[in-house]
Amino acid sequence: METIFDLARAERRASAQVPARESIEDLPESALRAEPPGLPEVSELQAVRHYTRLSGNNFSIDTQFYPLGSCTMKYNPRGAHRAASAPGFLDRHPLAPESVSQGFLACLHELQQILQRVTGMGSVSLTPMAGAQGEFAGVAMIRSYHAARGDTGRNQVLVPSTAHGTNPATASMCGCVVREVAVGSDGDVDIEALKAAVGPETAGLMTTNPSTCGLFERRIEEVAAIVHEAGGLLYYDGANLNAVLGKVKPADMGFDVLHLNLHKTFATPHGGGGPGAGPVGAGEVLAPYLPGPMVEKTVDGYRWMEPPETMGRLSAFMGNAGILLRALAYALMLGPEGMRRVGEFATLNANYLATRLQHAGFDIAYPDRRACHEFIVTLARQKRECGVTAMDFAKRLLDYGVHAPTTYFPLLVPECFLIEPTETESKETIDAFVEAMTSVLAEAASNPELVRSAPHTLPSKRLDDVEAARRLDLRWRPAHASHRSDPSTSG
Amino acid sequence: METIFDLARAERRASAQVPARESIEDLPESALRAEPPGLPEVSELQAVRHYTRLSGNNFSIDTQFYPLGSCTMKYNPRGAHRAASAPGFLDRHPLAPESVSQGFLACLHELQQILQRVTGMGSVSLTPMAGAQGEFAGVAMIRSYHAARGDTGRNQVLVPSTAHGTNPATASMCGCVVREVAVGSDGDVDIEALKAAVGPETAGLMTTNPSTCGLFERRIEEVAAIVHEAGGLLYYDGANLNAVLGKVKPADMGFDVLHLNLHKTFATPHGGGGPGAGPVGAGEVLAPYLPGPMVEKTVDGYRWMEPPETMGRLSAFMGNAGILLRALAYALMLGPEGMRRVGEFATLNANYLATRLQHAGFDIAYPDRRACHEFIVTLARQKRECGVTAMDFAKRLLDYGVHAPTTYFPLLVPECFLIEPTETESKETIDAFVEAMTSVLAEAASNPELVRSAPHTLPSKRLDDVEAARRLDLRWRPAHASHRSDPSTSG
Amino acid sequence: MPFIPHTKADVASMLAVVGAADIDELFDEIPANLRARDSGDGDAAGLTEMETLRRMAERARADETGPCFLGAGAYDHHIPSAVWDIAGRGEFMTAYTPYQAEASQGTLQLVYEFQTMMSELTGMDVCNASVYDGGSGLAESILMAVRAGERRRTGGRAGSRPRAGGSRRVVLAGAVNPLYAAAARNIVGQQGIEISQLPHGENGLADPGLLKDLAEPPAAVVVQQPNFFGLLEDVDAVTDQARECGALTIGCVNPLTLGLLKAPADWGEGGADIACGDGQPLGIPMASGGPSFGFICTRQSLVRQLPGRIVGRTRDLDGKPGFTLTLQAREQHIRRAKATSNICTNQGLLVTAATIYLSLLGPEGLRNVASACHARTRALVAALDLPRRFDSPYFHECVLRLDRPAQPVVEALAARGILGGLALGPYFSDLADCLLVCATEKRTARDIRQFSDSLDDAVRKAA
Amino acid sequence: MPFIPHTKADVASMLAVVGAADIDELFDEIPANLRARDSGDGDAAGLTEMETLRRMAERARADETGPCFLGAGAYDHHIPSAVWDIAGRGEFMTAYTPYQAEASQGTLQLVYEFQTMMSELTGMDVCNASVYDGGSGLAESILMAVRAGERRRTGGRAGSRPRAGGSRRVVLAGAVNPLYAAAARNIVGQQGIEISQLPHGENGLADPGLLKDLAEPPAAVVVQQPNFFGLLEDVDAVTDQARECGALTIGCVNPLTLGLLKAPADWGEGGADIACGDGQPLGIPMASGGPSFGFICTRQSLVRQLPGRIVGRTRDLDGKPGFTLTLQAREQHIRRAKATSNICTNQGLLVTAATIYLSLLGPEGLRNVASACHARTRALVAALDLPRRFDSPYFHECVLRLDRPAQPVVEALAARGILGGLALGPYFSDLADCLLVCATEKRTARDIRQFSDSLDDAVRKAA
Ligand SMILES: Cc1ncc(COP(=O)(O)O)c(C=O)c1O
Ligand SMILES: Cc1ncc(COP(=O)(O)O)c(C=O)c1O
After folding, report:
1. B45 and A75 in contact by Cβ < 8 A?
2. Ligand 1 binding pocket includes A261 (Cβ within 6 Å)
3. CA dihedral over B74, B79, B82, B88, signed as positive or negative
């Protein structure tokens, strides 16, 4: 746990990176800092070695199976990364004139069209920088629509109780009031509850389909009709589109606006937290309100364009352009055929894994339903019987060299794992995961303390979250400087 | 220990890499293979994950201190790698006309000049692809020289008994007979033995300076005079030039021809075995025999050139061009000043480390001599007293997260470690190495079995070399296919 | 089937386990009328990687230009090769948000180091692990300031989110990047928060006096340093004046310039309260503006209002130090409708790059790069020999005045392969004859000569 | 001080430990007259990485050309992005030769997999972990064959290295790459081994009949498939005939073509004895010819004559499989003057790339790439509409005849941005009007059209 600051020594430097100092005599003294910032002073080798080593303390798709539900941790093609890394793209200034940006604009336009085709939406704007920003755009568009019609009382956004946290948070950020709608025991939205919830205050409903329970909302058309009849609009959270990519178009289900998570469905790498991209698509009703800039094709070439009633820009420039390019490369490599197979094989893997886990003695939350690219296991019984929580179970899985599934989400199901294998994993990998789960299950019974104190094989043992929040330590200070402790001598 | 073949399944493929099959009907059946080759059939993710994981089973400069004597494991600047990776270089066909190769030729010419300056040699040819091939060129040039003078009886190459294995092996490959010259107890060549060895059969002497004992051959001028007087020529094995880079020029010591290891002194990465580059430099006498192609500057630009009596080419094209470009970038970043500091700080680090190890109770092979960027520790006493060999010691060091020094070389010193910290390592890293060495020393006394059975913390325990050579298993076969064993569950 | 490893045999045995006849059967819960309506258009196979790269590389190549003198929020700096060689490692690039701390110590420790470096640069106590970009960073800073104001009025009941209480208005003092301002307006406007612009003076600078004249105290005053015109604001005066009216100060800064310029925490008597900006200058390619990252640094007292991930140091079961996401109770996945922000996915990989960049540069490197940028810009201004529009001291960027509309000149320069700066007309109608130019440490004397020659040429042509 | 981490304080405390007054004192064993004679020229500081990249990138850019139709031993193939993303990882790139097996299982296992793949491609029992390139590969193969011949005559006393016994002559049957042949000659010539060339026939192919007529049986017959002209040799007949005269057969092959073509081990009745070649087509950039790698595959019975590193599978103390360098007793570091070769550093990183390449391509990928190369070359030949010089079946490369010397045409094409093939005059005086052309899977119909249009143009111009 040596930090880069522990490696630093005064006046050490990576000289090849340090240009000569130039005069700044013309600058007013009052604008300058008195003391240099306390950045680390290290050699280039130290920096390279330190961060290379740190990287080794991560699990990642490139090194581990990563069945994190709702996150679609599929293979991130290296070719897409390279395509986006061409110097002409990387060195392109965001404000370069259109005349010297035709290649870039052509790529964005092509991606807009692909996303239109795959969602059934008539217009797509690429600028939102993540799913949550796409949601923000969508809800803001819905509000603008109602406002434009003078329908000013619509301030409520409905979300199913299984919704991802960004849905209610987004609605709040848009100044709306959130109203949760119950989900029935079969995992579908409770139609009666929905009917009771809609009304003249309903701005719209936000939902995913398949839902965060990994279930396809079977009565989605009825849901849409209820909301529409009440005067509301429907927002599709596309984070789960991978399950039905190429098989079902959100527009056909009755949605008016949606976002896609390109860093999920379109395989752009998640980068340890981001970046992503959350393009928004809209049907006829909402298209005029889309955020800008978008790209249009004219006889004179491609140009930037703002929709007529645009909600305006959400980023300084063109969103996460580099992620858009990666997604385009991925889409081109898949083609429409490959796109359809994504949903098919993601679903096959999920159902196979669910069945095998069920056979292995796990409780599937919705055993009578098809798994849609992900599914829920509940460990409530294990907790009751062995005192082993889902979190304990998750930590122990890490010792088996697989990343844990999503835990405690959706909130609806107690002690749950949301498990999403994705289509890019092989049967063998899934089988190995079943073996690991089965072993931990056995351990939970025979040696629960082993599971409760897991992980045992990682750089850190179980970390104390509570302490972290109670005694906030958010930055290194010289007092932390650690003298190198004796090297490991385990034998 | 899963191999890529264990991951393979019939008809699996990384489709994005597989173009459509085209007709080959025009080819004669007899030329075609009946069965496809047994290459692995894996998905792209499987390949990426497999080889990413394998990489994690290596020690490397980027992850560990690597004080491998004679190998100069210094930081390999990432900038040099990038400089050589420009598309104009990477995509350049080796037989592209000179008219479209001026940038590349300019680089080679600049490197030739830098190496001339740093060695004092009047001419440098860049083509040899490693140190050993540079040696080959040098000895062949010496032979050509004698042959051209009708001096046909000179068939003996002298090497000090401390010589690196490539020196005698090269002499043999050149059809010469090798004669070893003893080294005195002070580490310098035994002048009397040398005098006794030279004669009318002497083609030349090959030696490094500093020697493989890490000692500067103090009477090098006398050595040169003796060989020259006997009619022989002197070959400088530049593998150790790092010690005196910018401080001493081999030409000034009396050498007629030399090679440099760019993958050592000029910091190009070693790649887990290579590639390297071993440019040869020669003074006036031998310059006409240098291997081609070389680059010359004319009024019309740069062009390929062959020396008048060239020994000809040693590679199909221009040697390891990409390595030459990396070395040039490194040389440019150092500049003459930085070049001199290399030798200074490599020597400072070596002497500091040697002194500290001596204080810690280790036996330095030549305690009265200055260490020249590397030095020898002998563990003969430890072997005698604790039954712990240098190899045991080396393996145990791995558990401390440092690569072991070179063991059992030079052959002269029993149970030896040849230790070369290089100039790019910090005092703290060296101090940590001293701590590790000191700990193992204590363990050798208190718990020799722990040391003898090391390593304990790596992917493999001690591997059986004898078995490997006795029951040769040089390629995977289906019979090897391993069913995944139970994942690790250590607790 | 790109990226799908299944063999026919795999599919058969998996279907057998599931008990389905074919894959299609797995979709039987989906109403038939919704399914696969368009399999018609959808049967084309994909391109190979080779074909994809060819198509995209050709387009990329078409957009390559000569030297770039455009800044305005995105800067063409040198990026040490090590930065992306390391940041691009699969272990950083293909990991998710570090929810499982023990399996994510690499990312977590790195973010902790990043938080420290950004805190050092801004002088602030804490920094978050990124927001999307400079524009959303400004928006989130404004939301923070408004929430903080509300909390102050309501006695600090966190999470109560009263609509009354603090001011729901924020002022921009002088020339703040208009693209950031637009994004911020679109974002905070949804909550009825108003952003008003205090005009810059004839010298191009914010006028602290205008703050005195405000009828009602705003929640915050935003000042950018150097400002959008590259001018050095009197941040001390602005900060002091903001405090006087009871407003927080939000400093919008280019982090690279903080190698030289006064840290926001040291502005005026009490320092700015929030420092935000875009991290692109720290080792991130311009890449058409994204991905880059926004950052927000603030005082310890405001940490619970800070949006986004925050990493804390803690201990493991053995008492060994380690890192974990902390203060998650602010975030959407816990707090849902009451979260400080809806941000979830952030710009982690760019934070990784910036952290490596800052490690390689160190204090001296950053200072020298900043000084080199300024020196090159000075040389550029001298070479172009055009009048400056504002005469206050500038840093690294500068507004020059042409004797004609700037936009056609920019176009003419582009045709000559030069990105010759930003025509300010679209952003400031009274500056239609002005060009915002910038040179980084990468620009050589030859580049500058090329610009100045092309400018002569372009102006002649446009005349 | 680029890449040197020492602070002044470090230096002082280190010197104190050593007991030296300054660093210079550490060089006091070096005769003063040898030291630092030229510190005069040597005080210039280095360039920064930025400046270095600028200088070299400008030069690189100057050498960029349009489509490449040159082959002749180096081929412009598509390289999957994953290949160098993984091979370029520090753990592969900055490791040394895997002497410490336990700390090098990554490289060792990879090489073992490589040996397996190359054995599969060639049909041979074993492969080494590389020699320098195709030229040195041919040279070392010849040395192997000569040693094997000597051993046979002397009853197999390994290491006795008799000068008498086996033949010290090797013949090249037909068109073997003349650059390989030259390198091989220069290398094996030092040991007095003679390489003689048997001419190709009017059809461009080796004439097995000529082998019959040899006075003395050579140690080996070398045949290249496809040969230097791109023609498919009757390797079965050559191999059989070589065996008949008691010579070993050395097959020089392009490994990529073995996705389709018969494996050397299957040539004729008994198969070739040694297969060698250059691995460049397997995921390695042309990079001016290097670094690439040479490979040598052979029969188990010749393994002790094989030069270079070899990795074997073994077990560790726990009985678990693992990998280690083996048969080191052949090598210079153990056997010194009696080693099979002086090779030490090899081309490991390129082997890493090739192994990843072959894993990504698999049997079908390799076959399809080979078939695509051939199809493109056929399309090229059709488009150029020049007569073929030889009418036997060709594969992937082809010799075309112009109505004038080819060299000026090549120059004229280069001026138009086309690498239009190799003018054969410098290598075969009777083929001065011939052009060896090649198209890989990367060449598009548009590239081919561009070549053919430029050729019309260039020929007109050169006329
Ligand atoms: C169902 C769902 N909706 C929305 C989001 C938010 O997307 P992002 O993280 O890109 O903001 C996520 C991502 O975690 C998600 O899983
Ligand atoms: C002293 C010495 N000479 C020669 C060589 C041979 O150089 P190469 O491995 O590049 O062939 C080496 C490398 O190991 C060496 O250390």
Report:
1. yes
2. yes
3. negative
Using CB atoms, pick whichever of C1, C7, C48 lies closest to residue B17: C48
pLDDT band at D163 (very low <50, low <70, confident <90, very high): very low
Nearest ligand 1 atom to alpha carbon A133: 11
| Residue C329 near chain D (CB below 8 Å) | no
| Domains of chain B by residue range | 79-335, 338-467
Specify the pairing of strand C248-253 against strand C220-225. parallel
With a 6 Å cutoff on the Cβ, whether D344 touches ligand 2 is yes
Residue B488 pLDDT exceeds 90: no
Which CATH architecture describes the domain B338-467? Answer: Alpha-Beta Complex (3.90)
The residue among C323, C292, C291, C289 whose CA lies nearest residue C309 is: C323
Tens of pLDDT, residues C387-435: 999 999 999 999 999 999 999 999 999 999 999 999 999 999 999 999 9
Please, are residues D308 and D346 in contact by the beta-carbon 8 Å criterion? yes
Under 8 Å between Cβ of D299 and D272: no
Residue B59: both structure tokens together: 């020690």
Q: Tell me, what DSSP letter sits at residue B29? A: G
- pLDDT in the model for residue D165: 62
D66 CB-contact burial (10 Å; exposed 0-12 / middle 13-18 / buried 19+): middle
Instruction: Give me the residues of chain C with pLDDT under 70, please.
Output: 36-43, 153-165, 461-463
User: Which chains reach chain C with 3 or more Cβ–Cβ distances below 8 angstroms?
Assistant: A, B, D
CA distance C31 to C37: 11
Inter-chain touch B17–C49, beta carbons under 8 Å: yes
Backbone angles phi, psi at B249, to 5 degrees: -105, 130
Q: Which amino acid makes up residue C433?
A: D
Q: Is B97 left (phi over 0), alpha (psi -120 to 50) or beta?
A: beta
Q: Is C300 on the interface with B (CB under 8 A)?
A: no
Which chain D residues are within 8 Å of A81, Cβ to Cβ?
81, 85
The verdict on a CB contact (< 8 Å) between D314 and B467 is: yes
Give the tens place of pLDDT for each residue, A343-363. Answer: 999 999 999 999 999 999 999
State phi, psi for C198 to the nearest 5 degrees. -90, 125
- B311 and B290 Cβ atoms separated by less than 8 Å: yes
Residue A488 reports pLDDT greater than 90:
no
Nearest CA to ligand 2 atom 6: B131
Sketch out chain C's domains with CATH numbers.
81-355 (3.40.640.10), 363-462 (3.90.1150.10)
Q: Of D460, D453, D461, D376, whose CA–CA distance to D66 is shortest? A: D453
Nearest alpha carbon to residue D377 among B23, C48, B91: B23
Average pLDDT over every residue of D138-158: 82
Question: Is D80–C441 a contact, with Cβ atoms under 8 angstroms apart?
Answer: no
Q: Got the DSSP string for B249-315? A: -HHHHT-SEEEE-TTTTT----TTT------EEE-TTTGGG--S-EEEEETTEEEEE--TT----SS
Q: Could you report the per-residue pLDDT of D247-270, keeping only the tens digit for each? A: 999 999 999 999 999 999 999 999
CATH of domain B79-335: 3.40.640.10
Pocket test for ligand 2, best of B66, B68, B70, B217 (most atoms within 8 A of CB): B70
Q: What is the mean pLDDT of residues B334-363?
A: 96
Assigned token pair, A330: 């991925």
Interface check for C80 against chain D (CB to CB < 8 A): the answer is: yes
pLDDT of residue C152: 75
Could B88 and D61 be called an inter-chain contact, meaning their C-beta atoms sit closer than 8 Å?
Answer: yes
Q: How far is D434 from chain B (nearest CA, A)?
A: 16
pLDDT for D458 equals: 84
Q: Is the CB of B131 under 6 A from ligand 2?
A: yes
Please give the pLDDT value at position C320.
96
